[in-house]
């Protein structure tokens, strides 16, 4: 019986390579190079300068669109934009500004998180969404020692709405014994992005930035450790199930032509197979018995089986910049 279904898989930033590349038979992680971030970040009442490394590109660089922009908002009863997303062009400028901000202590005893979130959201709406950087991922980092606000000042409703398009990381500090504050901030944060200052907070936030930076185009499934847990660790692997009646060879070429660097899905591990199977099971186009093509075929005169294999390369020269290609290249 000829399988009727094809599953496509994308690993961005890779190219087809000969069989000598056996060592790369692993699934792509999201990346560990912080200089490759394409983010717009708003930091709410926080010391953010320590999160960035020497050589990281801040601001808008005409010759290098792979940059991060950073804004700073402080709040008490109201909120104040200390620096918008177009203010900083270097890590040195960011460090200088944040230390000067910390020296300006407010005399107000009231602190409403809603005000800070609202200012951060407005800043992203004005300078990130619906701009040339609209496809860049958005992150709001909130440092706070208390949770205050009810009614119109309750930050939860606003945070819930923001999290549809923005990731929120929260850091609770100097409140180790206040479980109520930590519990409320957990609701504000994107799942998995709620931290306390007794952790290695710089490492935790850098990891969160890398995870926010790693995503797939709309309509694609991004592989993660657990299909059931949407907040489990993500991989730099995008999957697209496609209904197609074809032979294996025709499917391979269809996949390659469907998207840059596309190829039939590999299943190197049990975890990967389980995830792929759940994608198939939850797609109404696939019927039992579940059947789909994978990227495994005979080679060397049918003497052995071999995966369609890819090798890592350092860049994608010659490919013009566009929103969709930026999304591909985020996973380099």
Number of strands: 14
CATH topology of the largest domain, which one? Answer: Rossmann fold
Structural class of the helices, strands and pairings? alpha/beta
Radius of gyration: 23 Å
In round numbers, the mean pLDDT is 77
List the domain count as a whole number: 2
Fraction in beta strands = 15-25%
CATH class of the largest domain: Alpha Beta
Sheet with most strands: 6 strands, mixed
Low-confidence parts lasting 5 or more residues at pLDDT below 50? 1-23, 310-332
The CATH architecture of the largest domain would be 3-Layer(aba) Sandwich
Which key phrases capture this entry?
332 residues; alpha/beta; Rossmann fold; 2 domains; four-stranded antiparallel β-sheet; 8 helices; 14 strands; 26% helix; 22% strand; elongated; disordered N terminus; disordered C terminus; CTDL_fold; VWF_A; VWFA domain-containing protein; signal
Description:
The chain is an alpha/beta fold and 332 residues long. It folds into 2 domains: 5-31 and 216-329, no CATH class; 34-212, Rossmann fold, CATH 3.40.50.410. Helix content is 26%, strand content 22%. The protein is built from 8 helices and 14 strands. It has helices spanning 91-102, 113-127, 155-162, 179-188, 201-212, 248-258, 270-281, 323-329; strands at residues 5-10, 14-16, 39-44, 69-75, 79-83, 137-144, 167-172, 194-196, 221-224, 234-243, 262-264, 296-299, 304-307, 310-312. 35% of the residues are buried. Residues 44-212 form the VWFA domain.
């Amino acid at each position: 019986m000829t399988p009727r279904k094809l599953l496509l898989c994308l690993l961005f930033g890779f190219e087809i390579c000969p069989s000598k590349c056996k060592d790369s038979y692993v699934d792509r992680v999201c990346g560990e190079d912080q200089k490759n971030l394409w983010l717009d970040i708003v930091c709410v009442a926080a010391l953010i300068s320590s999160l960035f490394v020497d050589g990281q590109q801040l601001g808008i660089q005409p010759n290098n669109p792979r940059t991060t922009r950073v804004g700073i908002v402080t709040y008490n009863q109201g909120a104040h934009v200390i620096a918008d997303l177009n203010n900083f062009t270097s890590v040195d400028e960011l460090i200088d500004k944040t230390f000067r901000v910390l020296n300006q202590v407010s005399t107000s005893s009231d602190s409403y998180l809603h005000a800070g979130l609202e200012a951060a959201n407005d800043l992203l709406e004005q300078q990130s969404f619906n701009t040339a950087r609209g496809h860049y991922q958005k992150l709001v980092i909130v440092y706070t020692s208390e949770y205050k606000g009810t009614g119109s000042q309750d930050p939860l409703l606003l945070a819930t709405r923001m999290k549809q398009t923005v990731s929120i990381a929260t850091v609770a500090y100097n409140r180790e014994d206040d479980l109520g504050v930590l519990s409320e901030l957990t609701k504000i944060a994107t799942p998995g992005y709620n931290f306390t200052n007794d952790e290695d907070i710089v490492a935790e936030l850098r990891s969160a930035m890398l995870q926010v930076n790693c995503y797939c185009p709309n309509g694609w499934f991004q592989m993660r450790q657990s299909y059931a847990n949407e907040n489990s660790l993500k991989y730099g692997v995008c999957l697209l199930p496609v209904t197609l009646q074809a032979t294996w060879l025709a499917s391979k070429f269809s996949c390659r032509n469907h998207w840059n660097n596309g190829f039939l899905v590999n299943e190197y591990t049990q975890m990967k197979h389980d995830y792929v199977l759940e994608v198939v099971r939850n797609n109404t186009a696939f019927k039992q018995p579940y059947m789909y093509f994978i990227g495994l075929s005979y080679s060397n005169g049918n003497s052995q089986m071999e995966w369609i294999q890819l090798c890592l390369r350092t860049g994608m020269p010659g490919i013009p910049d566009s929103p969709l290609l930026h999304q591909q290249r985020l996973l380099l």
